[in-house]
Structure formats: C-alpha cells, structure tokens
Design brief:
Keywords: Coiled coil, Membrane, Transmembrane, Transmembrane helix. The protein has 364 residues and is mainly alpha-helical. The longest helix is centred in the last third of the chain and has 68 residues. It has 2 domains: 186 residues, no CATH class; 82 residues, no CATH class. The protein has 12 helices and 2 strands, in the order H-H-H-H-H-H-H-H-H-E-E-H-H-H. A hairpin with a 6-residue loop joins strand 1 and strand 2. A two-stranded antiparallel sheet has the order 1-2.
Amino acid sequence: METDKNKEKENNLDTKKETKSVTKDNVETGSTAQTKNEKFVEWSPENEMIMVEWCDVAQCYKWLNTRAHNKYKMMNAWFTIPAITLSTISGTASFAQASLPVSMQGYAPMAIGTLNILIGILTTVQQYLKISELNEAHRVSAISWDKFARNIRIELSKAPSERMDAGPFIKICRQEFDRLMETSPSVNEKVVQEFFQAFNGKEGSVERKRFEALKKPDICNIIISANEYRHPWYLDESTNTGTDNIVFVEPENEEFIRQKELELLEKENTLRNKENAEKDKQNRRENAQKMFQKGFLELSKKLKLQSKKLEDYIQAFQGMYGRKPIVDEIERHAEPLIESGEIERETLVKFLATYKSEGVLDLV
C-alpha cells in the first residue's frame, strides 16, 4: 500500500512538472491557443509603405512639437520672470516701508498695490493662455512622437526575416498612432510655415527632393487621395475573389496603358514647360523693371550733380556781383563744362527753363 501511494505521488509531481514546463514554453514563445488561430501576416512592400508613412508623419510632428515647445518655453519665461521680480520687489517694499521718510510713506501702499495688480494681471493672462500647460504638452508630445518614429525606423532597418510579425506590429503601431493623434496639442500655423521654410530647400536641390518625398501630416495643408493607398490587386491580369464565376481582368491591354502613360508624361511636360515659360517671362519683366529703375536713378543722380555745379556758379556770381547772372552769362560759363563733358547740354536747357520760370530775369 505504501509503495502504491509513493508511486502516485511521484506521478502527480511529474505531471505538475510537465504542465509547468509547457506553460513556461508557451510564455517564452508567446504561443497560446488564441495566437495559433490568428492569421500570420508577412512583410510586404505595402505594409512597409504604411510604416514609412507613419514614421515620416511622426518625424514631422516631432519637429513641429519641439519648435512649438521652444516658443511656449520662451513665452512662459517672459511671463514668469517679471512676475517673480515684481513679487520680490513688492514683498521687500512691504517690510521696508516703515524705514522710508515720512513724506514718502504715504505713497508706499499705492506703489505696492500697483505692483500687486501688475503681478495679478501677468499671472491671470498666463493662466488664461495656458502657456505652462501647452509648453509641457508639446514637450511630452515631441518625445512620444520621436519614440514612435524611432521604433518604426529600427524595425524597418532589419531584414524581413529578423522583424516582428507584420500583423501584430502594425496593430500596435496603429493604436499608438491613434493615441498620439488624440493626445497631441494643436500646432500653431506659424510653426508650420517655419517647417516649410526650414526643409523646403532650393528648387532642384537635394533638400527639395527629400522634402517632396517626405510624407507630411494633414496639418501641413496637404491632403492626398486615398486612391494612392489602394492595393494594386486590380492591376493583375486575373484576380479571384473566392468564387469561380467572378473574375476581375484588366480593362485594357498593356499597350493601351503604356500609351496612356506616355500621354500623361507629355501633358506633364507641356505643363512644366508652360510654367517655366511663365517664370522666365516674369523674370524678364522684373529684370527690365529693375534696369529701368536703376537707369532712372542714375540719370536723376547725374542731373542733380550737374545742376549742382550751375547752382554753385550762380551763388558765387551773386556773392561777387550782388545779383544773379543772366542766361547768357550762365551759358558762357557752361560752354567749357559742356566741351569737357562735365555738363550735358540737355541738363543746361532744363536748368535754364527752370531758371527762367522762377522769374529771375526780372531782376536784370
């Protein structure tokens, strides 16, 4: 009897060890009855494009929230530091007002009250604008978006065989993306404009090509049709939907599609050439306008300098003879200057017309 009982105990211990080892293996491998029933999803170019888009959007939001955090940090300092300074001055003045001269003690309460009012205004405005809350919210959001983008970037840098299963990974990323979109604060439009100015780059540069290839969020005033995200299953020659009598085929042959692509390329080239022609025309117009303005300024400057020489002669003549010179005297003085090229004859004619119109000849 005792031997039978001992055998039963040993058998029970063995079964417990086996169940523990099985559960331990299930925990380590992550295999459960539920996970076995789930469909295995392999990594495909379409799945990777989804991850690339989310990573690009996350990097954009990280930059936007970081820049917004810096702006709100500076704004918070502009409100907080004056409030601290005025509070210190007000507290010190409250204790020191008894040591003031008797004639100044009557003004001390008014000065302290004014400081307290200013402190209250600064604090109330700061709380109303929620500067501290937005500053912290943008900081946390920037860190979260950076972490989200970094996880995707690390996973995409691995070989497909070394990655986590595509199905669970996409599900986790989608939940995290939705959570960040719900909790992230809105970004100011000026920050979005700074984003374009910082990364847009010059036309034809490497920075411009990278910026155009970057998938940007909707807040950057960019909306893309959902047709670009469709799976190209309809481009296959024949695709079964699970029934034998329904078969989807291409509406046209490859030659027709190739012809349409060529037509689209021709239209794009035509539009591009038209835009370039408009830009060239606009540039020529602007250059002509600049040249005209430059020539006009040079001509007016030259005319002013030549007229200045004639005016200096008139002043010297008047100081010597006590009267202004007549036209003939001015012309005799200007002839050598015209021959030497210091004054043009057109300048002399215009100057004498103005000189006559001022009624100077009435003095002679």
